[in-house]
Design brief:
With 358 residues, this protein is α/β, with parallel strands linked by helices. 36% of the residues lie in helices and 17% in strands. The longest helix has 26 residues, at 79-104.
């Protein structure tokens, strides 16, 4: 049996959902494959999503990375808090690497995947195991101009130990992969047509309203209850389960519902920040996409540039969303292929590549 250790960034569920799409495909393609899932915040969500694979998936709860820290009640970064958190993380990073090496040593690991945890590449280097980074960004580029450059250089040094880099749509990173760097487009979990129709019938039984999906990240605390937006009688709004909104026009995704891509596929319009997970699901399912701009976020800017170049979205600001003061959005979208199968094949090929000591 071949074994992959898959480390997934802590921030929200976006890294988790796209990793689930790949892990499902890999496990279905290679019946002799075992995956060790290494994360913390989204671990139970991933466990619920991969239950069909039984003991072929091992779950390891541990510290991976920091992600973003936002100002309370805002979509903007808290730069001071992020600086402090990154400083503490880097101070502990040597111990974290040692802990993970000790844990993985009890398995015969063939390859380590990272989306996009920086210490993974130190772990792979220390164990002489090939590493693969999969992402549209790195935390080094996300933190550039945000945290102390000396701290950020330590993240860059970790990424420079990456062996292979699978760059996703919107990626604007250096060629960190020492052995290979390859570019792929969007991918996501597949929707279920019958479930999508059930949701449409449930959300809009009369058929005369527009279903608007507004997923706010699971680590974002934003007071949206009093937004005039919800008073629009022509729409039914679907929001994340943790949002504290009570309104007759608003429906929450059930807290135990894992396959949220079905809500994306059921929607007539998706309004979101430029988080890659939601964006990819909207694009692959050919949904009109309205992106809330956050100009200080490097990751957002790169994703938005890609989307606008291919005319895959329209842009707005939070203030306009609050009042629903927009009427135009692109309903004629190009077909975007789900690259899940291609990326899976590329990863499984790399299982047979042995790391050479230089």
């Amino acid at each position: 049996m071949k074994t992959i250790a898959y480390y997934i960034s802590e921030y929200g569920f976006g890294h988790a959902t796209r990793s689930i799409a790949l892990m499902r495909e890999m496990l279905r393609t290679d019946k002799e494959l075992r995956i060790i899932v290494c994360t913390s915040f989204s671990l139970e969500f991933i466990r619920d999503s991969l239950v069909e694979f039984g003991n072929r998936v091992v779950y390891h709860k541990g510290v991976t990375d920091i992600g973003y820290i936002l100002q309370k009640g805002s979509l903007q970064l808290d730069k001071d808090a992020l600086n402090t958190a990154c400083q503490n993380y880097l101070f502990k990073s040597d111990d974290l690497v040692k802990q993970e090496i000790e844990y993985l040593s009890s398995f015969n690991v063939d390859c380590i995947l990272s989306d996009i945890v920086p210490i993974v590449f130190e772990i792979g280097d220390g164990m002489n195991i090939p590493t693969v980074g999969i992402s549209n960004f790195t935390w080094w580029s996300a933190y550039e101009g945000v945290i102390d450059p000396l701290l950020n250089n330590e993240f860059k040094a970790m990424y420079e130990k990456m062996d292979h880099f699978i760059q996703l749509a919107g990626c604007n990173e250096p060629a960190f992969g020492r052995k290979s760097n390859e570019q792929f487009g969007f991918f996501c979990r597949e929707s279920d047509d019958r479930e999508v129709q059930r949701l449409r019938d449930q959300l809009n039984p009369s058929g005369n309203k527009r279903i608007v999906f507004i997923p706010i990240g699971m680590k974002i605390e934003l007071n949206m209850a009093e937004w005039p937006l919800w008073n629009n009688e022509d729409c039914v709004f679907v929001v994340s389960s943790h949002m504290d909104i009570q309104h007759p026009n608003v429906v929450k995704v059930p807290a135990d519902y894992t396959e949220v891509q079905n809500y994306v596929a059921a929607a007539d319009l998706v309004i979101s920040k430029a988080g890659w997970g939601t964006v990819s699901e909207a694009v692959v399912h050919q949904k009109p996409l309205l992106i809330i701009e956050r100009e200080e976020m490097n990751e957002d800017r790169n994703t938005i540039k890609y989307l606008t170049n291919y005319k895959l979205c329209n842009l707005t600001h939070r203030e306009r969303v609050i009042d629903f003061s927009f009427v135009e959005f692109n309903e004629h979208l190009i077909c975007v292929e789900n690259k899940k199968n291609e990326i899976t094949k590329e990863i499984l090929k790399k299982l047979n590549i042995k790391k050479v000591i230089i």
